[in-house]
Design brief:
The complex is a heterodimer. Chain A is built from four helices and five strands, in the order H-E-E-E-E-H-H-H-E. By secondary structure, chain A is an alpha+beta fold. Chain A has a three-stranded antiparallel sheet. Chain A is globular and about 35 Å long. By secondary structure, chain B is of the alpha+beta class. About 2% of the residues of chain B have low confidence. The chains are: A alpha+beta, B alpha+beta. At the A-B interface, strand 2 and strand 3 of A face helix 6 and helix 7 of B.
Chain lengths: 106, 325
């Protein structure tokens, strides 16, 4: 199992699983949310859509599953959500707010 | 220290009081702090006297890290907080003395200067006990609160925004003080809960008509003067659900209230007090309290206006009673 956080090509990213590290907590604030890195003490604000995407990512077995859930939730074609979702995935991974595991080859 | 303050430091606690959601078992009197109600419970904090050398002897300065200091550049800091894993937190403030808070907050040793208790205990109640209470599981906000309709109504704002005068003006309308300047909160299954603090209000102006009026009516008594008038008053006698929260803002004209929706996490997080402790548990709890307040407590901005605290209090009272139902 390889762990290549934010440089995965799109096709591999869809199969990757996403989890929140133990040193990160997410709490909702009304429609928005805040992710906190407990080690660095840094807070990150997420708007309602980003918060929903983060929860979908961490609750689904893979990114593709989260994309399906979000398409259903927002009643939008998955293709219209994909651009924002992959950007968010990579942004969160860059900041250490999520960890991603690529699916094993084959 | 023991001779100066006339109390045997190692004696069993002579005073059991309650503030900030903890039971204070103290070897000395705590002016302005309400005695603990029987059955109130809560985590305990043992308070005793110690000599300054005793505290410094216990505290391994070489293993310590300085968590905060305040002062003028080039001069000795007038306030410091140091942490050392075995002994805990050593707090120093010029004119107020030295205190050592154990790492779990369960014990506090005080080495005060030879001053009247109410003077050095301003530091004790303003900084030391809030740190201990926070280490015992309470979250601390830089905020004041009063009891209205059986619930706590809180208000936050920068120093000088008028939290204390608003609290006093509200007590003149029949509300009871919950806390002035330091508010202890927890998240319970019922929601956010506020705990009574020390029953002391500090006002900038000794001749404030509010203070004079409250004194005449027997609602407060002056404990002392130190550039501010320190007034003792009765505090709420139990923990209360937090029913509404107001952020004070300067404005012209008449006071008015505006709902905050959606809640701004930054505003809530900026209420946090006792910044020195940034352990994972503490940061998580801080975020939990803020999130719970955002979820369950109606939030408002109070535009103070320029008419003074009495009119602002009337607006808050009327508005809060409407919100609290």
């Amino acid at each position: 199992l390889s762990s290549t956080p934010f440089e995965l090509p799109d096709a591999q990213l869809l199969d990757a699983s996403v989890r929140m590290p133990v040193n990160v907590v997410f709490r909702s604030f009304g429609s928005d949310g805040v992710a906190l890195n407990l080690e660095s003490g840094l807070y990150y604000g997420l708007n309602g859509t980003a918060g929903a995407m983060l929860l979908a990512l961490t609750e689904s077995p893979c990114v593709a599953g989260a994309l399906e859930d979000l398409a259903l939730m927002y009643r939008m074609p998955a293709a219209d959500i994909w651009g924002d979702l992959k950007t968010l995935c990579r942004t969160l991974a860059e900041r250490g707010l999520v960890e991603m595991d690529a699916a094993p080859p084959g | 220290v023991r001779a100066e303050h006339g109390t045997a430091a190692r004696a069993s606690p002579a005073h059991i009081a309650s503030a900030f959601g903890v039971e204070l078992h103290s070897a000395f009197e705590l002016p302005g702090v309400a005695p603990a109600r029987s059955g109130a419970g809560g985590p305990t904090v043992q308070l005793s006297f110690a000599e300054e050398d005793e505290i410094n002897g216990t505290f391994d300065a070489e293993a310590a890290v300085r968590l905060s200091e305040e002062g003028i550049a080039g001069a000795e800091p007038y306030r410091t907080v140091d942490f050392e894993p075995v002994a805990g937190y050593r707090l120093y403030a010029r004119y107020f003395g030295l205190a050592l808070v154990s790492a779990d907050g369960a014990r506090v040793q005080c080495a005060p200067p030879p001053l009247s208790p109410w003077r050095w205990q301003r530091f004790l109640m303003g900084r030391v006990i809030p740190l201990a209470a926070m280490l015992r599981g309470r979250e601390m906000w830089h905020a004041s609160a009063v009891e209205l309709a059986g619930l706590a109504v809180g208000f936050a704002g920068p120093s000088g925004a008028g939290k204390s005068s608003l609290a006093l003006a509200l007590t003149l309308t029949g509300a009871r003080l919950v806390a002035d300047d330091v508010l202890a909160l927890t998240v319970e299954p019922s929601g956010a809960v506020a705990y009574p603090g020390a029953g002391v209000l500090s006002l900038r102006d000794r001749a404030d008509p509010l203070a004079l009026g409250a004194t005449r009516r027997g609602l407060v008594t002056e404990m002392g003067w130190s550039g501010k008038a320190h007034l003792v008053t009765r505090v709420a006698d139990r923990a209360l659900s937090l029913g509404a929260f107001y952020f004070l803002e300067a404005s012209d004209g008449r006071p008015w209230v505006e709902a905050i929706d959606p809640p701004d996490p930054r505003r809530l997080l900026s209420c946090a007090f006792v910044h020195e402790v940034t352990t994972s548990d503490r940061l998580r709890r801080q975020l939990d309290v803020c999130s719970e307040v955002a979820r369950g407590v109606p939030l408002f901005t109070l535009k103070r206006g320029d008419a003074g605290p009495v009119e602002a209090a009337a607006v808050v009272r009327s508005h809060a009673l409407g919100v609290l139902g």
